[in-house]
TrEMBL record, chain A:
Domain ABC transporter: 18-247
Pfam family, one: ABC_tran
Lineage summary: Bacteria, Bacillati, Actinomycetota, Actinomycetes, Pseudonocardiales
MF (Gene Ontology): ATP binding; ATP hydrolysis activity
Gene3D superfamilies (UniProt xref): P-loop containing nucleotide triphosphate hydrolases (3.40.50.300)
Protein known as: Sulfate ABC transporter ATP-binding protein
Domain of life: Bacteria
PROSITE patterns: ABC_TRANSPORTER_1, ABC_TRANSPORTER_2
Keywords: ATP-binding, Nucleotide-binding, Transport
Automatic annotation (TrEMBL), chain B:
Record gene name: ssuC_1
Protein name (Swiss-Prot/TrEMBL): Sulfate ABC transporter permease
Region described as Disordered: spans on this chain: 1-35
Stored Pfam families: BPD_transp_1
Entry keyword set: Cell membrane, Membrane, Transmembrane, Transmembrane helix, Transport
Lineage: Bacteria, Bacillati, Actinomycetota, Actinomycetes, Pseudonocardiales
Membrane topology, as annotated: Multi-pass membrane protein
Gene Ontology CC: one annotated term: plasma membrane
């Protein structure tokens, strides 16, 4: 069945990964100012997989950057209940001068971990994304999908220190990949998510991807970005899934069309 | 390299009608493994070392042989008097006459150790300078254009000033070398930092790098190709500046380097001496490029999958 939630998913305070309250972000000053986000309230539970959906220019990426502390909100507050969030971008952005294993090791090195610990953790993470054999390869020797998996392992290395729950922020990480690779990587991501128990905030503009991956899909409006609607999409049967996809698509179209009128 | 039969199996697995449902785990795994095997770029087959050497060494050797043959022929035709165009053999004899006494080694050493030492000082001065110019906007707009201007100023123009400041000694020479090399190395590093894709520092930040750690683990390695190009140019400028300084400033305290040797040839109207000096200057330049910078540059670029160097 389709569940359109009137109220945000109730969650007790203790098992939250991140909470955004009245977050507002304005770029520029005076007449040239652009309001990217306005009054965004969002909660992600510990271990929850939330997909953030919206048309271009709705501030999805801005929102993620705020949570990742790459940028500061103009107003409102962002409360992180986890260790430093792991971030993945649309490009793998691996350091081209480091091997895959060294790339995964980099955040551990930055955190000052010892050599033996770094080695062990790196091997573990490469194994998690099934790239144990490719540790010595350089980024240019890997395919796009393999690079994104290295980037996932590196992101996880930056956050999960083995204790507590983590938060994984993903900014359209599969958008630049071909259909089959994307399919495989979505499966991998779900597997890694289950294995690590980490919460995920996944930004995408692909409705089908959002419904397939997420437990909850959050639709943002554009300029300024606001939370318009949410769907709980966990445990849907295939037929229901198609129905939700159609419904979300319709809502997304509505949001986009409203801009043509304005 | 994937064998053709591997490719067929993988395509066979992947092609059944695409479903919105995630495929069963087993199938997904084999599709994933197939994708990895197919997608990973395969490099060209390695060429044996001797063949690579032959390919690299042959063309220049042929060119040099042809050049000497033309020279010999021009000399034999006697278009110009002997004091303008000596025979190749006369130049060789002039050079060879310096070798047994150790004078050749001493001349080379005098110049080369100055150039290397001056270059190293230039690196030490230019690296922090480049970092500051690249990262501090005020400094960049204040002295960036000046550094670029200095790069275009022939450093030989500093020789008279340096001689008046320091007298005819090593300090004057190093001053000229530094003024020649520092702007090149600085600008190389600034260009290297400017060309870093902006995503890399952002990644560094989300991975938890502070300012210093980011400079050491991300900024400097990412800027290395540009920095290396600057170093190479900086070396060329130090070598040129040194020769200019040695040629103009001759004095008892300055030792007897390649520039002085060249100047001696001019003073004595000894053309074989002049040409031997020019060739030595050229050979040192080429040797440093081939033995130091080329392998370094190749290693750096190859590690990043860049560079069309053969």
């Amino acid at each position: 069945m389709t569940a359109t939630l009137e109220a945000p998913v109730p969650s007790t305070d203790t098992d939250l990964a991140v909470r955004l309250g009245g977050v507002r972000k304005v770029f520029g000053h005076g007449a040239a100012a652009v309001t990217a986000l306005d009054g965004v309230d969002l909660e992600v539970g510990a271990g929850e997989f939330v997909c953030l959906l919206g048309a271009s220019g709705c501030g999805k990426t801005t929102l993620l950057n705020l949570v990742a502390r790459l940028d500061e909100p103009t107003a409102g507050d962002i409360e992180l209940r986890t260790s430093r969030p792991a971030v993945m971008f649309q490009e793998a952005a691996l350091m081209p001068w480091l091997t895959a294993a060294r790339n995964v090791e980099l955040p551990l090195r930055l955190a000052g971990a010892g050599r033996a610990e770094r080695r062990a953790r790196t091997a573990e993470l490469l194994d998690l994304v099934r790239l144990s054999g490719a540790g010595n390869k350089r980024p240019h020797e890997l395919s796009g999908g393999m690079r994104q998996r290295v980037a996932l392992a590196r992101a996880l290395a930056s956050t999960l220190d083995g204790r507590g729950s983590g938060l994984l922020l993903m900014d359209e990480p599969f958008a630049a990949l071909d259909a089959i690779t994307r399919d495989v990587l979505q499966g991998e991501l779900l597997r890694v998510w289950r294995a690590t128990g980490s919460a995920v905030l996944f930004v995408t503009h692909d409705v089908r991807e959002a419904v397939r991956l997420g437990q909850r899909v959050v639709l943002l409006s554009s300029r300024p970005g606001r939370v318009v609607r949410e769907w709980s999409v966990t445990g849907l049967a295939p037929s229901e899934e198609q129905q939700v996809v159609d419904e979300v698509n319709a809502a997304l179209r509505e949001v986009i069309s409203s801009h043509a009128a304005a | 390299m994937p064998r053709p039969e591997d490719a067929e199996t993988t395509v066979g697995l992947a092609s059944p009608q695409p479903s919105p449902q995630p495929s069963p785990d087993g199938e997904l795994d084999s599709v994933g493994a197939g994708l990895d095997a197919l997608d990973a770029p395969t490099g060209p087959r390695p060429v044996p070392a001797w063949r690579r050497f032959a390919r690299a060494a042959m063309p220049p050797v042929v060119a040099i042989v042809v050049l000497i043959a033309v020279w010999q022929a021009l000399w034999a035709a006697a278009f110009w008097p002997e004091y303008k165009l000596p025979a190749p053999l006369a130049v060789w004899q002039e050079f060879w006459s310096l070798v047994p006494s150790g004078q050749a080694a001493s001349i080379l050493w005098t110049s080369l150790h100055r150039a290397v030492f001056g270059f190293l000082i230039a690196v030490v001065v230019a690296t922090p300078l480049g970092l500051v110019i690249a990262k501090v906007p005020f400094v960049r707009s204040a002295i960036g254009p000046m550094v670029t201007g200095l790069q275009n100023l022939p450093s030989v123009a500093w020789v008279p000033a340096a001689v008046l400041w320091f007298g005819l000694n090593d300090a004057a020479i190093y001053c000229v070398v530094l003024l020649g090399a520092v702007p090149s190395i600085t600008n190389g590093l600034v260009a290297g930092i400017d060309q870093i894709p902006p995503i890399l520092p952002r990644v560094g930040k989300v991975l938890g790098a502070g300012r210093l750690a980011a400079a050491r683990h991300i900024l400097l390695p990412a800027a290395l190709p540009g920095y290396l190009a600057g170093l190479k140019q900086g070396w060329a400028f130090s070598w040129r500046s040194l020769m200019a300084a040695e040629l103009i400033a001759v004095g008892p305290k300055l030792g007897f380097g390649l520039g002085a040797y060249l100047e001696q040839g001019r003073a004595l109207s000894e053309m074989p001496n002049v040409i031997a000096a020019i060739l030595l200057i050229l050979i040192v330049g080429i040797a440093v490029e081939l033995l130091a910078f080329r392998p370094l540059e190749r290693a750096v670029l190859r590690a990043r999958g860049l560079g069309g160097l053969p």
